Amino acid sequence: MRRTIFYISDGTGITAETIGHSVLTQFDDVQFDTYRIPFVDSAEHAEAAVLRIKTLYAQTGARPIVVNTVIDPALSEILASSGALMMDVFAPFIEPLENELGVKRKLSIGKAHGLVNFAEYEARINATNYALTHDDGANFNYADADVILVGVSRSGKTPTCLYMALHFGVKAANYPLTDEDLEKLELPKRLVPYRARLYGLSIDANRLAQVREARKPNSRYATLAQCRWELDQADRLLRRENIPWLNTTHTSIEEIGSKILSSLGIDKQMY
Amino acid sequence: MRRTIFYISDGTGITAETIGHSVLTQFDDVQFDTYRIPFVDSAEHAEAAVLRIKTLYAQTGARPIVVNTVIDPALSEILASSGALMMDVFAPFIEPLENELGVKRKLSIGKAHGLVNFAEYEARINATNYALTHDDGANFNYADADVILVGVSRSGKTPTCLYMALHFGVKAANYPLTDEDLEKLELPKRLVPYRARLYGLSIDANRLAQVREARKPNSRYATLAQCRWELDQADRLLRRENIPWLNTTHTSIEEIGSKILSSLGIDKQMY
Fold first, then answer.
1. With helix as H, strand as E and coil as C, how does A123-169 read?
2. Which residues of chain A does B257 touch, with a Cβ-Cβ cutoff of 8 Å?
3. What is the pLDDT of residues B96-155, one digit of tens each?
């Protein structure tokens, strides 16, 4: 079975798509074709969206589903005239919240992922620059780091650092364990002062060899033997030094990031 | 007025926080203290969450609000015993969807931001590596690029590329316009074959000078005159070459990314 989903928003559509995706993963027998219609902030844009929905309805013969985060009720009404099944994301929560808080909500559109708080936004961008300049041992001055990821090459450190920086404004550096570090089985001296901010990433040897092979085909670096040795030594080092760590093989960067922040007690707001 | 919000999930908590944040921005007279409790996937974890909620309720005297994306109804019931105002994110949508689709949802937890589709996940990570290796003119081979951002130094190209890569699996390169390009007022030859994939970023001169000053204090690069000249020339070049562009000064990377993907007709699913 195939069905069509439209994510419609007066802003970026990120909220609509996030919740829509979460709900739809609970219906995995159905194949969903998804379309994003962002910045629907006028009657004209809403009418254009209705036309797209109606066209697809006619083409497929199946009623489309609209996940709607448009805040202006007049625009939502226009969207509903498409005949789609409307899933209004905010509607169920507004009344209970208004009652609980004793204030009326404000109809300000596109705020959730807009540039509302400039200082917070700047912190994200600065954290992203920090992650880029403190990636892969490029800069060993970790005084400002909120977290320093430690692991062998290609264990997932860089994307995880970028994710935590972009979405939590966390200054995340990463240090790649070298063969020398792994032979000594000692925490590199430059990391010792920051022990409380260290977090280790590991990965299955087969997966690591596969990733490295794609990057440097036929290299010693990509052999299973080399990957196994590095990972064994790294695991030993992290255990001995009592550094928290996790295996990234079956874990998304969102899950890794979430676990690291919990583990280190970093309770920053997500953007 | 201050109120406490708990984002509680059996996975990362990203969906809960995304929708909670969107709803709460509509109540901007209230100050919200937010706490994230991810990976609540057992009665034990749910009981621990209840204890935290009750403790805060007792301390503040104000009823906490729980934004809940835990899928197992038994765990949600435990959470509700905290006495908090429960906002169950999925509840309102499940029944209408089950009726529309004619199938029952499956109670599989933590899927929304977990590692479900390995090929999709790999595409995101590869796109992130692509953005890093094609950043700031580091590599001019744009054959595989889905989009190439063009603009003066510090106009917002790098964070936007990383965002599009991480969340849409889009291969985003960026090319910094040099003084030479800006003097010639010609599209650099290496970009000509990829004209349809170009997108320009601009920024207000005052803001650019401020950002550059933070990076290279007292440099010619950071003077308002230099920023104005570069931006004027870049705007002229982009207009003359008919390349779509936007001003990033008051625009978040989520908004910039969303507009670029719409403009270039890239309809990839968001992760």
1. HHHHHHHHHHHCCCCCCCCCCCCCEEEEECCCCCHHHHHHHHHHHHC
2. 12
3. 999 999 999 887 766 677 766 778 888 899 999 999 999 988 888 999 999 999 999 999
Of chain A residues 26-85, which have a CB less than 8 A from chain B? Answer: 26-30, 34-36, 38-39, 63, 65, 69, 71, 85
Helix locations, A31-141, DSSP H? 43-60, 73-80, 91-101, 118-133
The residue ranges of every structural domain in chain B are 2-101, 118-263
CATH topology agreement for domains A2-101 and A118-263? yes
ipTM of the complex: 0.85
Test A101 with B27 for CB contact under 8 angstroms.
yes
User: Is there a contact between B101 and A1 if contact means CB atoms under 8 Å apart?
Assistant: yes
Of the candidate CATH numbers 1.10.287, 3.30.450, 3.30.2450, 3.40.50, the domain formed by B2-101 belongs to: 3.40.50
Percent pLDDT > 90 in chain B is 77
CATH number among 2.60.120, 3.40.50, 1.10.10, 1.25.40, domain A118-263 = 3.40.50
Name the token pair of B136.
Answer: 């700031």
With beta carbons less than 8 A apart as the criterion, state whether A45 and A18 touch. Answer: no
